[in-house]
Write a structure and sequence with these properties.
The chain has about 425 residues and is of the alpha/beta class. It folds into three domains: about 160 residues, Spo0b-associated Gtp-binding Protein, Chain: A, CATH 2.70.210.12; about 180 residues, 3-Layer(aba) Sandwich (Rossmann fold), CATH 3.40.50.300; about 70 residues, 2-Layer Sandwich (GMP Synthetase, Chain A, domain 3), CATH 3.30.300. Strand 5 and strand 6 form a beta hairpin. The longest helix is centred in the middle third of the chain and has 15 residues. It is elongated. Its main location: cytoplasm. One of its GO terms (molecular function) is GTP binding.
Length: about 425
């Protein structure tokens, strides 16, 4: 089976903890703090590999974790940074957060390499926390925690035109005739079990890419048959060609077939169903009708051309009518937006994960209010409080998570001191 989706677990590296130590040298009886900083944890990076065309590798291994940064050492020794982990995927892969289904990244177009989870920043050693009133700080900053996520990988082929139609209507034959693709062709249903891509090159026109989306059946939008396996591949296409068996060689009604497929597209994604469409009335070489009987091609035109959907009679076997169809497709593509269909980012791991439901405590020790817990460690690891933007984020975090409210409930007053691990500040509204 063509591997076009996978679910995997990814984890960035934790930052190394800062170190607590003091200078111990001859003739220096009271040496100051000299604990070194921790190293940075490894990032999780996705990168497009032109040599790949499936997600098969991710079917065998499901968990990927970057290494943690090393902790700091004595004498201001900085812990080593960890190596990043790079996951290579085929172009067109969309990375989604597994629970919400929101897009994290679309590995197509100009986006060839993207950091999905950042490694934790290393914690500061105790050398950074010496002040005039605290000359021997016995604490250091912990390394920023690792980020972890379950993500869904979905490969959505990159093509200008999507071929749709019920099984055995001649899509593969059509594709093999008009492009350099060599799909497997036989006279039975579901011959095509993976999307085939081909490039159309015609004199005087710009080339375009066609994707043969494997045969749809009723209920495909609900996952019946192989529906969900293949419908995702039409999401990037700008124009849809419906291939129908105009001759009804299997007893099917071509008008009814088109109505059913449009209903499936609409149920899956109404925006896709609204894209420009062209009907390829195939197998005209096999049409036999009695005298006075309406031509099936004329019936298709009468039914769909008033809706703005042109009908082109063609024969995938003889080649009749195909050139006229392709020139019309090229003309329609020239009228459409030239920008590729890219899925915009909806989920930002760094913002989402910092607000996770982690515990924290607010206690009063002597005259100092102490706020601690995994939630605070994570926030301090992510935030650069030396920058104006970082400090504004810090204030918003305290308000949004209810920490300020708890401090006020404990009776904090303006000018009182708050301590969060190595950070100490005065409270003002």
């Amino acid at each position: 089976m063509f591997a076009d989706r996978a679910k995997i677990f990814i984890r960035s590296g934790k930052g190394g903890d800062g170190h607590v130590s003091f200078r111990r040298e001859l003739y220096v009886p009271n040496g100051g703090p000299d604990g070194g900083d921790g190293g940075r944890g490894g990032d999780v990076i996705f990168e497009v590999d032109e040599g790949l065309n499936t997600l098969q590798d991710f079917r065998h291994k499901r968990k990927y974790a970057a290494k943690d940064g090393e902790p700091g050492g004595k004498r201001r020794c900085h812990g080593a940074d960890a190596d990043d982990i790079v996951l290579r995927v085929p172009e067109g892969t969309v990375i989604k957060e597994a629970q919400s289904g929101k897009v994290i990244a679309d590995m197509s177009g100009d986006n060839r390499r993207q950091v999905i989870l950042k490694g934790g920043r290393g914690g500061l050693g105790n050398q950074h926390f010496a002040t005039a009133t605290m000359q021997i700080p016995k604490y250091a900053q912990p390394g920023q925690p690792a980020q972890e996520l379950w993500v869904n990988l979905e490969l959505k082929v990159i093509a200008d035109v999507g071929l749709v139609g019920f099984p055995n209507v001649g899509k593969s034959t059509f594709l093999s005739r008009v492009t350099n693709a060599k799909p497997k062709i036989a006279n039975y249903h579901f011959t095509t079990l993976s999307p085939n891509l081909g490039v159309v090159d015609m004199p005087g026109t710009r080339g375009f890419v066609i994707a043969d989306i494997p045969g749809l059946i009723e209920g495909a939008s609900e996952g019946v048959g192989l529906g969900h396996e293949f419908l995702r591949h039409i999401e990037r296409t700008k124009l849809i060609i419906h291939v129908v068996d105009a001759a009804g060689t299997e007893g099917r009604d071509p008008v009814e077939d088109i109505r059913k497929i449009n209903a499936e597209l609409h149920a899956y994604n109404p925006e896709i169903a609204g894209r420009p469409q062209i009907i390829a009335a195939n197998k005209i070489d096999a049409i036999y009708r009695e005298e006075g009987q309406e031509s099936p091609v004329e019936r298709l035109k009468r039914e769909f051309e008033p809706e703005g959907i042109p009908v082109f009679p063609i024969s995938g076997v003889t080649g009749e009518g195909i050139q006229e169809l392709l020139y019309e497709v090229s003309r329609r593509l020239d009228e459409l937006d030239d920008e590729p269909v890219i899925f915009q980012q909806e989920y930002f791991p760094e913002d989402e994960l910092i607000y996770e439901d982690l515990p924290y405590t607010v206690e009063k020790e002597d005259d100092i209010y102490v706020v601690e817990g995994p939630k605070i460690e994570k926030m301090l690891g992510y935030t650069n409080l030396d920058s104006e933007k970082g400090f504004q984020f810090f204030q918003k975090f305290l308000k949004d998570t209810g920490i300020l409210e708890e401090l006020e409930a404990k009776g904090i007053q303006e000018g009182d001191t708050v301590r969060m691990y190595g950070l100490q500040f005065d409270y003002y509204k």
